[in-house]
Specification:
2 domains, Immunoglobulin-like, six-stranded mixed beta sheet, alpha+beta, about 30% strand
């Protein structure tokens, strides 16, 4: 009596061989991965680094003695200062803290504090009027259109004195 040969035997023998061939080429796969990594590193080296975002109060000068009305001028690098209306991702606008400490930089800048000036119109200059004689401190903060300071923080601090009127 002759038994029929099971049909699954050839499949059972061929499947591992096919799998070994398909998954093989370990050296080729490693070489391809290394080439991709090298190309990615080279591309990263060729791309210019994003410029650092900075703000600087250019007027008045640090330590200046001024009158009760003083023009404050700020310059930024690495970001476009624009109006918050309409909001544009990747842009910023100025806030001036006058004689007050910074609020937490991860939170919304308060809008109801008269000593925090919101410059949501995209301006880079502001006229402070009627300052009392004595020492003063300004802190410029660049925030996103939602009034949250940029991360990492972009700030500058300046001290000046308002002269006594004689």
């Amino acid at each position: 009596m002759r038994f029929p040969r099971p049909r699954w035997i050839p499949v059972a023998l061929i499947a591992p061989l096919s799998l070994a061939i398909a998954c093989g080429g370990g050296e080729q796969a490693e070489d391809a991965a290394m080439a991709e990594d090298a190309m990615a590193e080279e591309a990263a080296e060729e791309m210019p680094a994003e410029p650092a975002v900075t703000v600087r109060i250019t007027q008045p000068e640090e330590g200046a003695t001024v009158g009760p009305d003083v023009m404050v001028v700020m310059e930024t690098e690495g970001i476009e200062i624009v109006s918050i209306t309409p909001p544009v991702v990747g842009t910023g606008h100025h806030h001036l803290y006058v004689d007050v400490d910074l609020t937490p930089l991860s939170e919304l800048i308060p809008q109801n504090d008269p000593q925090i000036i919101h410059m949501g119109d995209g301006s880079t200059e502001y006229m402070l009027e009627g300052l009392a004689p004595g020492a003063h401190r300004l802190i410029a903060v660049v925030a996103n259109p939602a009034h949250i300071p940029l991360d990492p923080p972009v700030v500058d601090t300046l001290h000046f004195t308002v002269a006594n009127e004689e």
